[in-house]
Amino acid sequence: MQRMLCYIITRLTLQKVTLVYCAFAPANSHNADDNELVTLEIIHQFVEVLDKYFGNVCELDLIFNFHKAYFILDEMLLGGEMVEPSKKAVNKVVEAQDQLVELAKQGGGEQNMPVITGPRG
Question: Which domains can be identified in the chain, with CATH numbers?
Answer without folding.
Answer: 35-112 (3.30.450.60)
